[in-house]
Amino acid sequence: MDLIAWSDDIKLGVPSIDAEHRRLMDLTNNFLAAAEDEALMPQLAAILEELIEHTRAHFQTEERLLDQCSYPQLMAHKTEHTRLLNETQRLHDRFCQPEASTSLALEAAQYLQHWLLDHIVASDKPFRPYLMRLG
Ligand SMILES: [Fe+2]
Ligand SMILES: [Fe+2]
Question: Is there a smaller number of Cβ atoms within 10 Å at the N or the C end of the chain?
Answer without folding.
Answer: C
